[in-house]
Amino acid sequence: MSARAAWLVACAAWIGLIFLGLAWELFLAPLRPGGSWLVLKIVPLLLPLMGLLRARRYTFQWSSLLVWAYVAEGAARALSDPGASARLAIVEIALCAAFFAAAVAFLRAR
């Protein structure tokens, strides 16, 4: 995989995680009707966004560590939450895996 393709996949997965977190906690399957304070979990995802979009190597390095917190959250909610929330957790895990694989490919290609 070329560095550009890996960068595109990583950025798409990261932005997908942001939109998934917003949609999940605001309307798709919030813990409480009308939205949940868990929507704040996307704030750490916003911190590296500009560095990822600018293809900064250091940002890719530490973001690949940050993403594991979201894997853990996705795994916990996939196993404990019922219905739609469990399916959204599986999507979260898939986006995290896609980001991590693309970030590693991007870092190796550069």
Description:
With 110 residues, the chain is mainly alpha-helical. It has helices at residues 3-28, 43-46, 49-53, 57-80, 83-109. It has one domain (3-109). The chain is elongated, with a radius of gyration of 14 Å. The model has no long low-confidence stretch (mean pLDDT 95).
Helix content: over 70%
SSE topology string: HHHHH
- Based on secondary structure, the structural category is mainly alpha
What integer value in Å does the Rg equal? 14 Å
Shape: elongated
Tell me how many strands there are.
0
Largest sheet: none
- Total separate domains: 1
Query: How much is the average pLDDT?
Result: 95
* Residue share in β-strands: under 5%
Low-confidence stretches: none
Instruction: Note the total helix count.
Output: 5
User: What is the terminal-to-terminal distance?
Assistant: 11 Å
Entry keywords:
5 helices, single chain, 110 residues, mainly alpha
Compact description:
With 110 residues, the chain is mainly α. The chain has helices at 3-28, 43-46, 49-53, 57-80, 83-109. It has one domain.
